[in-house]
TrEMBL record:
Domain Reverse transcriptase zinc-binding: 22-101
InterPro entries assigned to the protein according to its UniProt record, in alphabetical order: RVT-Znf (IPR026960)
Tree of life domain: Eukaryota
Name of the protein: Lipase, GDSL
Organism the protein comes from: Artemisia annua
A Pfam family it matches: zf-RVT
Length: 104
C-alpha cells in the first residue's frame, strides 16, 4: 500500500456496459452485434456438445472456414484453390463436407 498523499491505485475499467466491470457475456453480445448479420432471433448454442463443435458448425453455416477458396477471396496467396488431395474440384466447404467422396 502506498502512503503518498493523493495516490490512487491503478485500476482497469471496462466500458462495455455501465457497471465498468468486464463480463464475458457483455463482450460476447458486442462481438455478435458487430460481426453477425442482424437476425430476428439470437443464436442458440447447443450446450450439450463442446463449444468447438458449436463454433465449427457456425463457421461452416456462414462460410467462414479457412478453405483455400475463402483464403484466396480474402487476398491470402495460396498456390492453388484446388483441393490438394483429389485435385478434382475447388476446395470450398461444399466440396470438403458434402461432395468429396472421402467426406461421404
Amino acid at each position: 500500500m502506498c502512503c503518498i498523499k493523493g495516490y490512487i491505485p491503478d485500476a482497469w475499467e471496462c466500458y462495455v456496459d455501465c457497471s465498468k466491470v468486464y463480463h464475458v457475456t457483455s463482450m460476447r453480445k458486442i462481438i455478435e452485434e458487430k460481426t453477425l448479420p442482424s437476425l430476428e432471433e439470437n443464436i442458440r448454442w447447443n450446450k450439450s456438445i463442446p463449444i468447438k463443435i458449436n463454433e465449427h458448425t457456425w463457421w461452416l453455416c456462414n462460410n467462414r472456414l479457412p478453405t483455400r477458396c475463402n483464403l484466396d477471396h480474402c487476398g491470402i496467396d495460396t498456390n492453388s484453390v484446388r483441393c490438394p488431395i483429389c485435385d478434382q474440384a475447388l476446395e470450398d466447404s461444399q466440396h470438403l463436407f458434402i461432395d468429396y467422396s472421402i467426406a461421404t
